[in-house]
Structure formats: C-alpha cells, structure tokens
C-alpha cells in the first residue's frame, strides 16, 4: 500500500466488541449494504466460523469497518453488542487508503464456483448440502461440475429446490428424466427450478403422470425459448423459471374442469401469501 510521506500505518490483530465497530456513512463504498445477504447470513449463523474483519482505527480512537460489515451486523443481532470479534486493525490510514482496502477486499476476490462451494459444504458437514447430495444420488445421478447423462451441473438450481422442502428434489429429477429421458438437456438449470416451483406450490394437487405428459409436448429448448419470450429483458435463470412454470401450468390445466385439480401459478401463490 502506498503511504503518504512520513505517514506510519500500523497493523495488528485485536478482539473487539461488535458494538464498537462502526460504518462510515460518508464513504460511498460503505453504503453498499444488502439486507438480503444479511438475512441469509443470519439463517446460517455460526460464531465458530466467523472470519476476521478488517477495521480502521482512526485518530479519535473509533473503529470503522472496511470489510465484514454484514457479518458484524448479524453478529450484533444474534449475540449482542458485547460479542467479541477478531479483527485485523489498520491504524493511521487515510480515507483514500480505507476506500482502496474496501475495494481490494470486495472486488479482487476470485468467486468460488457453485460446485466447489457445494463440495466444501459437504466436507464441512452442512446438513442441506449432504441431503441434496443424497437425494440426487437416490435418482442414480450425481452432482458434478458439468452436466452429462448421469451428472447434474446445475448446482444452484439443485440448492434452490433442495432448500424448499425435503423430498422435493428427487420428485423433480424423476419427473424430468421420465419426461425427457436421462439426457444432458433434461438437467437444465431453468427447468429444474421451474418444475421445483410447480411441485412446491402444488404439492398435494399435482399429478406426476399428467405433468410428465405436459412436459413431453415440447423439448426443453422450446419450453425455455417460450419462457424467455415472456421474460422482461431476457432475465436470468431465476427470473425465467417463473414464466416457464406458468407456461407448463397453463398446458397442464388445459381441459381440466374440476377446480380442485387445477394447478396454481407460483407467482399467484407468492402474491396471495404476501397479501
């Protein structure tokens, strides 16, 4: 790090109460707070795996977070302001140096690939990852870094479905395999998400055989193409999954007269729950 002339920057480790760790509202970089990410961290909170925060100790003795804002706020919420967190403390930084450290901590990290993260989660004993792996294997498949006949590389889609309820993932994979065959194209990211949404929203209503016949009316590629057409600006896998699910449900409901047998759109179900 480039220092100003005659400026001394000291670095040392210290255990500090999270209630003393502040956020500088005047620093643009520090305004990037994501409540969704904080909520996700709160759900998997484990004080034993809390990594070291990066902190700047200023001339007035106050401590400002450079890296670790979300996890610090979650720690304070879960454990209270007196909870002690290990910190790497920089003393004597200028505001410009603080900003550079923030950018280095948040922009220069190489993202961990979903499959690599999944493997490490299993090694760490994460119950969800272990269950997902077991459920995929129960279908004669395996979670992998790439997709092939018997390997599913859509890790994020598997986790998306697996998080919703136990037993949902095997039903989704079995339905896709029955409809389109054990083929690389069958284990598509968007398709896994969409069928997962259909089952999860209509768990006690959907008929497996009818859903299979509905899916067989088109190839994976055609179903996806139609979903993309109804998605604003194309969208990503998550946003395309809902219109794909709705397209499938429309075809599934065609010809049904009994209201109790009709499937409900995931979007409508979410809206009703929020009302």
Topology:
Layout: E1 10-17, E2 21-22, H1 35-43, E3 53-57, E4 63-67, H2 69-79, E5 84-91, H3 95-107, H4 114-123, H5 127-137, E6 142-143, E7 151-152, H6 155-162, H7 168-180, H8 189-201, H9 208-215, H10 220-229, H11 237-253, H12 266-274
Parallel strand pairs: 2-4, 3-5, 6-7
Antiparallel strand pairs: 1-5, 3-4
Helix pairs in contact: 1-2, 4-5, 6-8, 7-8, 7-9, 8-11, 10-11
Q: What is the H-and-E element order?
A: EEHEEHEHHHEEHHHHHHH
* Number of domains as seen in the coordinates: 2
Shape: elongated
Helix content: 40-55%
**Strand segment count:** 7
N-to-C span: 52 Å
Rounded radius of gyration (Å): 24 Å
Pfam families: DUF6551 (PF20188)
InterPro entries: DUF6551
Protein name: ParB/Sulfiredoxin domain-containing protein
Organism: Streptomyces nigra
Give short descriptive properties of this protein.
275 residues, alpha/beta, Conserved hypothetical protein from pyrococcus furiosus pfu- 392566-001, ParB domain, 2 domains, elongated, ParB/Sulfiredoxin domain-containing protein, DUF6551
How would you summarize this macromolecular structure in one to three sentences?
It comes from Streptomyces nigra. This protein has 275 residues and is α/β, with parallel strands linked by helices.
Describe the structure.
- This is ParB/Sulfiredoxin domain-containing protein.
- Pfam families: DUF6551 (PF20188).
- InterPro entries: DUF6551.
- It comes from Streptomyces nigra.
- The protein has 275 residues and is α/β, with parallel strands linked by helices.
- The chain folds into two domains: 10-107, Conserved hypothetical protein from pyrococcus furiosus pfu- 392566-001, ParB domain (Alpha-Beta Complex); 114-274, no CATH class.
- It is built from twelve helices and seven strands.
- The chain has helices at 35-43, 69-79, 95-107, 114-123, 127-137, 155-162, 168-180, 189-201, 208-215, 220-229, 237-253, 266-274; strands at residues 10-17, 21-22, 53-57, 63-67, 84-91, 142-143, 151-152.
- Strands 1-5-3-4-2 form a five-stranded mixed β-sheet. A two-stranded parallel ribbon has the order 6-7.
- α8 crosses α11.
- It is elongated and about 75 Å long.
